[in-house]
Amino acid sequence: MPIKLPSFRQRRDAYPPDLWTKCQSCEEMLFNRQLDKVRRVCPSCGHHFRLPVAARLELLLDPGTFEEHDVGLESLDPLGFVDQKPYPERLAAAQAATGLRDAAVWGFGRLHGRVVAICVMDFGFMGGSMGSVVGEKVARAAEGALEARVPLIIVSASGGARMQEGTLALMQLAKTIAAIERLRAEGVPFISILTDPTTGGVFASFAALGDVNIAEPNALIGFAGARVTAGTIAAELPPGFQRSEFLFEHGFLDRVVHRAELRGEVAALLGYLVPATFEEPSAEPIAIPAFRPLSFLSALADRVMPEVEPEAPAPNGPPVANGPAADGAATRPDTVGGDGSGRRSARRDGPGERSGLTDRDGAPDGASSTDGAEPMNAAPAAQVQDAEPARVAASPEEGARHG
Amino acid sequence: MVDRLLGRREDGTHREPAARRESADADATLAPRDAVWARVQLARNVKRPHTLELVGLMTDEFIELHGDRLFGDDPAIVGGFARLGERRVVVIGQQKGAETEENIRRNFGMPHPEGYRKAMRLMELAERFRLPVVTFVDVPGAHPGPESEERGIAEAIARSIGLMTRLRTPIVAVITGEGGSGGALAIAVGDVVIALENAVYSVISPEGCASILWRTPDQAATAAVAMRMTAGDQLALGVVDLVVDEPHDGAQADPAEAARRLRSAIVGQLGTLERQPIDSLVEARYRRYRQLGAYTVVSQPAPPAPERPGLGERLRVFLGSGRGALGQLPGRTDEPPAREDV
After folding, report:
1. Quick one: B337 exposed, middle or buried, by C-beta within 10 A (0-12, 13-18, 19+)?
2. Chain B neighbours among A 61-90 (CB < 8 Å)?
């Protein structure tokens, strides 16, 4: 191949884009491999680059625990929409560019060992816009979380509703919110993570309605775009308007969290947001060094159970509880029956197990709320564990490291 | 495609009575683009009866209630108790002004968060006293200014939609003019959604859509056609359940007759809804919105992820970077292209 020698200035503009990325905020040239290592946060100015779905899942979940659901959902073209390109062509182009079918992915996974339902949006797919498929996936994630009674996490990154699907896209606001409202009524927690950007119909629906709303720093979050505001009411927008910090200041976000701390924060929050049918055992840390003999664990579980039982009358609780607690995490899938009653009893067993593992960690408060809580969610993890038994079994250790 | 839309629209009209067909025939003499745009203009006509006029004409009594108890009273949303014969209801609607001064006072019918919070307050009132809710939707969009954002317009809209999806009383929503995006849906979630014949309903204003997808607001009429925003189209999509014909050339020509037709449609729907047990009503409402959407389930494997270039390719790109400077390489950057929506 002939090599043209470019002038020095031209070459500066033309760093191979798959090797280098220019930070939009501080204009630093960043080596991509380095950037990936630091979760795509600019090391010099802290700018948070947008994350594709896979990187986001890797950031939030225990390795190998994610199991995607409803992979095959694909959008139709209900309006026969053509702007400068037909909608199906835009869809196909976005699919080829991202390897996704649409702008959202949902499934079950584990976060510090705790099973969660998670839905992640990808801005790279048509601006992360919400059409029928995204709305359906969010609704199914909420319904899945409700059925399994595990916390729901939604990571938003979207320009809003997808214009190419017209009012059917608008109706996804009602669809997703209706599903989230059911979670609220049933006491199943929902953590909304808003990333750059979360605007329009996505912010005006589920993203604003988390039991806890978390945003990454300096993310664009707002209802109307600057162009709309300027075009409609000719108003100047103040600097820093519609950024995470602005929303935080005005009371619509609970926390603005740096990406490096996001996973830990979510895990800590989940320690408090336990689905209503899960009984939270006493938070008293019991000072037992790590890795006690199994027999001791079961004895301990026996000791702890009576304290918990008054608030949680578990008909078939204690005897079953000792099994999984004693055998450790790896056997838990076996105790998790397929039917609802099996699940419930396994769940009720939680406190006993949980205390055991918390003790093993030997860490107080913060850690116990994250790692220690893990076994309580063993039941709904069945699907995940079927797929990746070895990895899941290893997850308590993984969690312990983070704790 | 334009032909197809026209075809569809005329298909849509055959289920409607003669008056509708006449106006459709009149439309047919226009280019379809102009016919749709004419409807958008009708929906926005300042002479068109707005919520207070319609409520005044169709109810036997109306007592307006004010304030959200949190911040203030938003004149862009009105609401209160009303009587339709023996039936007592809570009505809520966006209110545009009939002339400039009133329009300024009412923010051209664009509600702030306090407007939606007032609406929620009235809905909760209705739920507690077992009154059905009737909403009148006529809004270009929620107010997009800084103060609206500061007070949480998105949160207010989301909460209002949420409340309506679970409100334990019958809800009839009527799109009377412009159904503009989230600002409309915030009070338009219902067991039954009715639209007046010349009403429009869309996910974004045609001007907004055009300026994003066509890069110029001048293509608004084209965008209006593409979004299929007329009442007939919305009926075909299942977003709207019932279209009520307007008299003559539109509701502005004979507001009293338009209100009379609307009243009989609302009363008819309320009669049906009130006979249902509330649990099944709320469940049916959930199902109504749960099923809206157009997707398919495909079984072939997901599209292959874009491959990371191998070492050879990377070297080639690196060595040939000069070509990139001359614009021959696709300039891939970290950030995707401009967002599709606002």
Report:
1. exposed
2. 70-84
Evaluate whether B53 touches B257 at the Cβ level (below 8 Å).
no
A162 closest CB neighbour out of B149, B296, B341: B341
In whole angstroms, give the CA distance from residue B6 to residue B226: 11
SS3 content of chain B, % helix, strand, coil (to 5): 50, 15, 35
Distance between CA atoms of residues B216 and B208, nearest Å: 9
Crossing angle of helices B2-13/B18-28, nearest 10°? 160
Q: Please write down the long-range contacts of A51-59, taking CB distance under 8 Å and 24 or more positions apart.
A: A51/A157, A51/A195, A52/A98, A52/A122, A52/A124, A53/A100, A53/A105, A53/A120, A53/A121, A53/A122, A56/A120, A56/A155, A56/A195, A57/A105, A57/A109, A57/A118, A57/A120, A59/A259, A59/A262, A59/A263
Residue of A16, A129, A235 lying closest to B317 (CB–CB): A16
How much is the pLDDT for A266? 95
Residue B146, in any domain of the structure: yes
pLDDT computed for residue A240 by the predictor: 77
- Confidence category of residue B215, pLDDT binned at 50, 70, 90: confident
**d(Cα A370, Cα A363) in Å, to the nearest integer?**
10
Q: Is A199 on the interface with B (CB under 8 A)?
A: yes
Give the count of beta carbons closer than 10 Å to the beta carbon of residue B315: 12
Q: B27: which 2 tokens? A: 């439309």
Residue B146 forms contact with A (CB below 8 Å): yes
Report if residue B318 sits inside a domain: no
Report which secondary-structure segment, H or E, holds B234.
helix B231-237
Who contacts A223 (Cβ-Cβ below 8 Å, separation ≥6)?
A: A199, A200, A203, A204, B142, B144, B148, B149, B153, B154, B157, B182
- Asked if residues B166 and B127 have their Cβ atoms less than 8 Å apart, the reply is no
CA dist., res. A128 & res. A194, Å (int):
13
**Alpha carbon distance B194, B239 (integer Å):** 9
Q: Which positions 207-246 of A are in contact with B (Cβ < 8 Å)? A: 207-209, 222-225, 227-229, 231-233, 235, 237-238, 241-242
Report the amino acid identity of residue B78.
Answer: V
- Which has more pLDDT, A333 or A227? A227
Between positions 250 and 289 of B, the ones with CB within 8 A of A are 286, 289
Domain A53-272, CATH: 3.90.226.10
Domain boundaries for CATH 3.90.226.10 within chain A: 53-272
The minimum CA-CA distance between A129 and chain B, rounded to whole Å, is 7
**Alpha carbon distance A228, A232 (integer Å):** 6
d(CA B39, CA B277): 38
Contact yes or no for A46/A383 (Cβ under 8 A):
no
The beta-strand segments (E) located in A264-362 are none
Identify the burial level of B218 via C-beta atoms within 10 angstroms of its C-beta, where 0-12 means exposed, 13-18 middle and 19 or more buried. exposed
Is residue B282 included in any domain, yes or no?
Answer: yes
Tell me the nearest-neighbour CA distance from A139 into chain B, angstroms.
8
HEC string of B29-47 equals: CCCHHHHHHHHHHHHHCCC
Q: Tell me if B157 and A223 make a contact (CB, 8 A cut-off).
A: yes
Please tell me the pTM assigned to this model. Answer: 0.74
Query: CB-CB: which of A74, A170, A177 is closest to B165?
Result: A177
CB contact under 8 A, A18 and B153: no
Judge whether B177 and B48 are in contact, CB under 8 Å: yes
Residue B190 lies in a domain: yes
A223-247: per-residue pLDDT in tens?
987 766 766 667 777 777 889 999 9
Total domain count, chain B: 1
Q: Which domain holds residue B240?
A: 2-290
Per DSSP, the three-state class of B239 is coil
Average pLDDT over residues A50-77: 93
